[in-house]
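Hi R.,

Here's the chain you asked about this morning:
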Amino acid sequence: MAGNTFGQIFRVTTWGESHGTAIGATIDGCPPGIPLEPEDIQADLDRRRPGTGGPASPRKEPDKVEILSGVFEGVTTGTPLSLIIFNKDAHSKSYDHLKNIFRPGHGDFSYLCKYGIRDHRGGGRASARETACRVAAGAVARKLLAAHAIDVLAYTVALGGISIDSLDFEDIDSIKKAAADNRLYCPDSATADKMEERVKEVRSQGDSLGGIVEIIASGCPAGLGEPVFNKLDADIAGALMSIGAVKGVEIGAGFAAAAMTGSENNDPITPDGFASNNAGGILAGISNGEPIIARVGVKPIPSISQAQQTVNLDNEPIEIKIGGRHDISAIPRIIPVCEAMMCLLLADHLLRCKTTEWISQPSSLDPE
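And the predicted structure, written out as tokens:
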């Protein structure tokens, strides 16, 4: 199985299955001298782990990360970082009755077509459990970005058809505070309450919900990205679309730009900078110094307890109801995953642009 490695210089390979012994990530290309402790990674993992209530699965995984290599006396050494998370609460027998059945909305059918074999225990590599590896690696990338005053933040802007009423892009601190006040990481507390009620309603119906997550990267210098095939926005879209539940990506004004005129969509340039940010911080595939803004459309969780039509391995039509422990929505657990992929992508682009010596000395970012 190819396609398990992300990045050109800051390269991350994730490994492991949902119901295997462990999952993990190997990072190659991380510069030396970055302060790193397990606690730095654990903070993001704790936001993603199951069993946190709300729309989340009741599966109880501590998701405790161990750093096996690449760190000495609290700093990275420049050698490969190896991260491991042991699975503690996998109930594989719960999937035995699905061994010969294709679950609607899952990768069962396409995996079998490609590989001729599939791990039916929670979906194997197709499981959202794999995203814990991304979050762990993304936390390392976040440390690198923080050394250059680059901050990545994601939050819920819509869930189950309920959207936030307002959002102040200028006040990132207020967004962080608001997100910390509710389990859905929604910066509009009144709307968050409505979302919680919607989750309860849909849970009682045995169904699931989709939504929209917005990601902002602030503090990015101008000049990241390439002008043709490695455009920054194209790479961001690819990184975010690699998350299993994501079915669409917008940058800046996104699809709304299609209904605008040029005079509405263009961002005026003043001596003090850009007067608006419909471009989402990227022009001609290269960052322009404004906040990078992306949104992802998150599909509903496909595992639902309502009756669904499908077929078995003998192509016989059957009806199934999927029980077990499943999220009602990928939100909010997908939020740290979105942040992780943005962190990994930006860290890689930083290293593509500059040398290791440059990246390990934040002061050299100064335009002088």
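The chain has one domain: 5-365.

Let me know if you need anything else.
M.
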